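[Meeting: bench + compute handoff]

Bench side (C.D.) handed over the final construct sequence. Compute side (W.E.) agreed to return the predicted structure before the next meeting so the bench team could plan truncations. Sequence as handed over:
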Amino acid sequence: MSLLKAEPPAPVASLSELFAIAHALEEEAASRYATLAEQMDSLELPRVAAVFRHLAEEELEHAHRVEDWAYGATGARPDHHLMRWQPPETFDEEEAHQIASSRLASAYRALSMAVRNEERAFAFWTYVAAQATMPDVRKAAERIASEELRHAALFRRERRRAFRDERGVATASEASSPLARAISAEERLASLLPMLAEAEGDADRAVEWRRLGGEASAMAAEAAALAGEATAPSAITEVAAAPVDPLRAAWRWAEQASESYLDAADAGRDEALVQHLQRLAERAIARVAALRQAASPGEAS
């Protein structure tokens, strides 16, 4: 199933046009989430309504950041009239309608929709970056794509918490500490990525997988040091056989690592430690982008 119904019809011609598109998408998402919040109120589902209000506020904050960025880069606020074409839909209208008409709506389902919306936005901006003919437009699109991926990671984490809260249980992985989960994910990546490199037919991509495999080993040791362990506990031996789809498995472990670093940063009390964990999360999210595009460039998760 395609993440986007259509690719952007033409390259973005300027930073001003890029900011206009980015601002319009954020404002539209904020408006639709706000409408869903009102519909949840009418269905007497206050907890789900609160989730949608939170999402609307997040999207408005993103729109304000785009405004500030645009003014700093171009000296002008985003102007929607500069959009030469309508961006492909990144908001799931059908799913929103189903949620709005159902008393079975839940915080988990609301956040699941938000994750998929952010992933569609990520896909859109990666297309914009790939089509860009101007270096400043490409760099800005890559920056927005990275932000959308970070938002998806944050919403995915909230979705996991909603799943736990709604069922009153935690999974075995959630019972362990965030850093322990990060170490486990990094070790699995350190095992899987060299396998990908060996099987990869593209020489450049094989080099990238080996580089990321080395980075995963280093980050496992770094996380272990932060956890106060002499060495990272081995989790590789728990994997009895190679996964059927090692690329997709690596992508999933990369996502778990990024979410675990974010969880650990949230729980941290020492400012220096929190900043260190946030830097690890940023590196992990950048890795997710590479694996996500290779594993499923045009498919939903």
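W.E. noted at the follow-up: The chain has two domains: 15-169, 174-295. C.D. will use this when planning the next construct.
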